[in-house]
Design brief:
By secondary structure, the protein is an alpha+beta fold. It has a single domain, classed as Alpha-D-Glucose-1,6-Bisphosphate, Chain A, domain 4 (2-Layer Sandwich), CATH 3.30.530. Helices cover about 20% and strands about 40% of the residues. α1 packs across α2. The chain is globular.
Amino acid sequence: MTAPADAVRLARRFAAPPADVWRAWTDPADVRRWFGSDPLGTVRAARLDVRPGGSFEVAFADRDGTEHTCRGEYLEVVPAARLAFTWRWQSEPGVETRVRVALAADGAGTRMDFEHAHLGAASRHDYARGWQSTFDKLERLLAPPESRAPQAGSITGS
């Protein structure tokens, strides 16, 4: 099966086992810590019913206060391995796309193959840039504590 031409495909490696990456995608508390492309944005709500036929809705805001809500239905759920779901923006009624996430152990970490497909011309979102920035946040969440950069204003001991 050939992937659609109107898709964003990204591969990322995370310094965490597949179970941790899976939890980041499927646990509402974890989703609240990384979702959204604005590095300083915040997730306001995350509701996930992670099962085939279950639904999700995530509401988040950019640092300038612009709010976004995405929702969809889970199509495939294979714990710590594959997740597929539909994707709809509240601001773009009638536009539905598809997301596929595949996870595989890669040494002590995880390789994630990501595809957001059937984008067409109906959506005004820059998915490639948005997902790259979003996954940068996910990478920081999953990084081992000793490799995380201190937060601005934090005090580190010596």
